[in-house]
Write a structure and sequence with these properties.
heterodimer; A: about 725 residues; mainly alpha; 31 helices; about 5% strand; B: about 475 residues; two-stranded antiparallel ribbon; 19 helices; 2 strands
Chain lengths: ~725, ~475
Amino acid sequence: MSHETLTTLLWLAPLPPILAFAVIALFTNRYRQTSSTIAVLAMIASLVMSFIVFFSVWQMKDLGKKPIGGQIGWLPTGETVLNIGVAVDPLGATFLFMVPLACTLIFIYSVGYMSADPRYTRFFAYLSLFAGSMMGLVVSDNLLTLFIFWELMGFCSYSLIGFFYQKPSAYKAAVKAFMTTRVGDMLLLLGMVYLYAQTGTLNFHAILRSEEVLKELAATPAVLGLGISAAGLIAILIFGGTVGKSAQWPLHVWLPDAMEGPTPVSAMIHAATMVSAGIFMLLRFFPLLLAAGEHSAAFTIVGLIGAFTAFLGATIAVAQYDIKRVLAFSTISQLGFMVAAVGIGAYVAAAFHLLTHAFFKALLFLASGSVIHGVEHGHHHVSHAHHSGHASHSGHGDDAHNGHDAHGEHAGDDAHAFDPQDMRNMGGLRARMPITFVTFLIGGLALAGFPFITAGFWSKDEIFADAYYHGLVKGNGLAALVFVVLVVSALLTAFYTMRQIAMTFLGQPRTEAAAHATESAPTMTFPLIVLAVFALFIGFINIPKDFPIFGALMGDGAFWLKNFIASMLLEKPEPLAFNVVPVLFSIGVALGGLALGWLVYARNPLQAGQTDPVEKLPMFNFLYHRWYWDELYRKIFINPLQAIADNYSRVVDKGVIDRILEGGYALGARVTQGFAEFDRVVITGFSDAVGRFFRNLGDWGRELQTGQVQNYLLSGLIMVIAILVFFLFLFQ
Amino acid sequence: MLSLITFVPLAGAAIVAFAPQRLARVIALGASLVAFALSLALLAGFDAAQAGYQFVESAPWIPQFGIGYKMGVDGISVWLILLTTFIFPIALWFSGESIRERERAYYALMLLMETATLGVFLALDMFLFYVFWEFALVPMYFIIGLWGGERRAYASVKFFIYTMAGSVLMLIAILALGISAGTFDLEAIARDNGAFAANTLLFLAFAIAFAIKVPVFPFHTWLPDAHVEAPTAGSVILASVLLKMGSYGLIRFNLQLFPEASAAFAPLMIALAVIGILYGAAVAFAQSDAKKLVAYSSVSHMGYILLGIFALNQIGIQGAILQMVNHGLSTGGLFLIIGFIYERRHTREMNRFGGLWAKMPLYGALALILALSSAGLPALNGFVGEFVILQGAFAENPLATAFAAFGMVLSAAYLLTMFQKIFLGESRDPANDALRDLNWREVVSVAPLIVMCFVIGLYAAPFFNLMSSSVTGLLTGAGLAMK
């Protein structure tokens, strides 16, 4: 395929979903079937174009050096013009594969999942814009349009998290997500402004593949005398954007609340779009981090925040009961793995884990949605039978669907609040929902890093290998720390995953609702199956060449991803020699954590009414309340801001400024009284004439007459005359 | 041409004054639309490559004092002319919804104000400028005082006192400058500004006069009161057009005539800009009256414009000029949005709404677009302006830029909070049950603003291209170009 055609496809790829948004919002918002069909077809069109691009470039060896794309001038800024454009490079190409694929599956799933929601069309409009924005972000060849789509995604997530906007918890979560990520966005914006001020361009290729520009940035000291290089400060500011978008500590608090949105939205946010975008951008700017120096503050900050977040998320996930909240914290933790990997220079490993994670996390969220859907169905079935005395199941299918996700809205219908997302209300779903169970199990095993047969194992192992090599072989302290923390986090990950699988699917149902749960419709299970296939096999895109057996099996296909995307970097990273120690660690923690979870939760499954064993842990409350970060932020940021805001207008505006003004006015009034004396004696006749003139201006003029105004006009006029006279004398 | 644009509304005012009450609005609307059409023709004939004034008209007026009638337009003022002639028809159109008494006087005053504001942006003679300036403010005083809300007397007097204080300072400065220079011709003084370039006193006199109008912290307290009491159309004009007289004056007078003093005072002005941005945003956050919230958001947004102007470089000033237009569109739009609900419920207390999106989906969508435009969401106009301003300011003062960027976080906070209180959640007052969605007249009033928000947000290049020669010329002429 010619480069021109590919460039055209790149320009077009994000458009169908964005147009679908416009068409649904403006024209078809009353027609449910039409709207969802438009959305799905548009997404498929985008998928087809992306795949054509991907399969045209995936074997190009020098794509990193010469990305394909085109530009147009967009924003004149003084002497320079800011160009915008599209491009595909190896990193972008891999995303052109993952993003539209995951989005398409989520769209198809949503057709089934949202089928009874009254705002079905609005949902598909937002979802389309969300997907289109992510596509735009992926094809952007410059930071400005990346930022534009980045912010549009922020808006979409705001709208979708707050989709059930009558619920206070939903709109609060929406505002929280938008505000928290926006803090990071502003750091990113500053980084962008700084970068542009330094280099005069925002084009990725021009900055990040130019030795000259990078050297210059590394040699320039940062503004404000911070003692680091411009490259380092810009990298840190840009990383701020990642911290917000990819939910890293300290801006991680929005992501768990984001599950207030419908479950497909969670899958979008956690896998295909939002949080992936943050890591994607960090990977893009990896050369800038390198330019800042291997032991620079930038790398250290990235590595520490990533490792800490990985640990934080994993510990909290252990003590959660909400099936989606466990997954939310696991996302935070896994993103921490990726960020930490970037922080120790493991560029390819981070990208690899991002790709595999996108598939298995999308799978886990969609499967959990299926679980919730099934349990809710069971609950409605039971409570209906209970209320009316006979179970006329078929006639109330619609009612049963109405409730899911928005169950808060319908709380009044229920005699007691039943939480269909609480894993304590589940159990034994394996038999009731076999497809959901098997696919969830595959996703869970991938998350836990079950050896060899899951994608998660290969990508996590890659991170361990890098961290081990840099940390324990080369003696880099940061990498060693990262290695230890990630190993512990991986152990916890395997443990909480097993806990989740056991509590949800194994043993006996702990509620009537769980006992009557039903498997979901094919529109929902089909995407699960496809994603499960990827969760198993996507890892084979980057099998280490000299890994026993598997490396040989892959032949030339080994390290495809590494060979492909490492051409993004100026210096291709040396492939690490195979080392068995980190592999043993990654097998050990995965199996160990799973076994531990098995021992605690699967051997003797939780009975109805029985307390979860983790509650016996001394720090259970601390973990359950997420280390109290939300409470802390409320105390140190939100409350003071509120107090400042509440008091400032009273104290400063009314208390100080207006008081001064009134004082000045009183003084002025005294002065004008002096004038008035003068006025009475000298200008009375004149002002009377003026007054008469005004009164005769016609009837509309009369309507304006108020004594007060006349006085003001008069005193103004007098002042003008007085000053004029004064100056004429002064300057003669 | 320029005089024609300027005085068409005045002619309209004269006709309105003697026409029957019921025709007042139609005539006023017609006159303002003629002015808009003429200014589009002006835009079509405008030569972007030329840095200096175009369409210049000049006639002696009081030659003894060197006072002349001189008008001209350049790449800076041309956008303000278009903004003014674009906003006035919208405000007059919407006035039909809310103004039901003494219509003749109202429409005549509005048209008088349009003539005066156009004159302010076009005048090239300082004395003429002052005359127009005064004529622009007096009608607003009446509009607040006669068609305003409950505390209109207090608000209008406060408005007038502030305004007079600024005017007096400006008049002193104009007279001092004009008499010592021997001419009131702005172009001539700017060309040969050596004697005053560093004159602190004159700089301050002008700066304070314009700062009151912008308004710059701490001269802003008149603004929330004036906005809250003004009728909707008055608020729209006040925010969209009248405030721009201040920021325009800062560029035209302070930067052009006193470049050295401007450079010396730039740090102070930037500090005030940043204080305004953060302070306005923080106070906006605490308001429960939607209109007051938007009024304080104006204080915050005008801070960005001030920041861009006193970055004293090409990018910053261009951003500031574009942001003047953006602020006019977004904030004007938000005042309309609040006007819609006020006409229905006669309250603006956000706590008495809630859940309106379900009842008024179209209204909710339009309000959300304008709120996001004001909050600087990319693809809408506010982002382009703020990004360019920050780019300009960064070269001058990175730390101030960082604080200013934080203001964008706060602006999202108060605007989304406003949106949430009115539109999301459950209704908090049974009176909301009877609400109906927007009628076509209301949609017509706000639609042009929203379209322009998208146009500028998606492709702002034409706007910058038209102003860039003039801004370059201004900076070169003032000797600031090499900064």
